[in-house]
Amino acid sequence: MGFSSWPTQDELDGVRKRVAEMSGRDPQHVRVVVSPYRICPLGAHIDHQGGTVLAMTINKGILLGFIPSSSPQVFLRSGQFEGEVRLRVDEVQSPRETIKTNGEVHANGSTEALQECKWGNYARGALYALRRGGYHLTQGMVGFLCGSEGLDSSGLSSSAAVGVAYLLALEAANNLTISPTENIELDRLIENEYLGLRNGILDQSAVLLSSYGYLTCMNCKTKEYELVQAPGLAKNQELRRQEQYKVLLAFSGLKQSLTTNPGYNSRVSECQEAARLLLQASGNEKLEPLLCNVEPDIYEAYKSNLDSKLARRAEHYFSENKRVSEGLKAWSSGRLEDLGRLITASGLSSIQNYECGSEPLIQLYEVLLKAPGVYGARFSGAGFRGCCLAIVKASDAEEAASFVREEYRKVQPKLASQLNQNAAVLICEAGDCAHVL
Question: Is 203 a catalytic residue?
Answer without folding.
Answer: yes
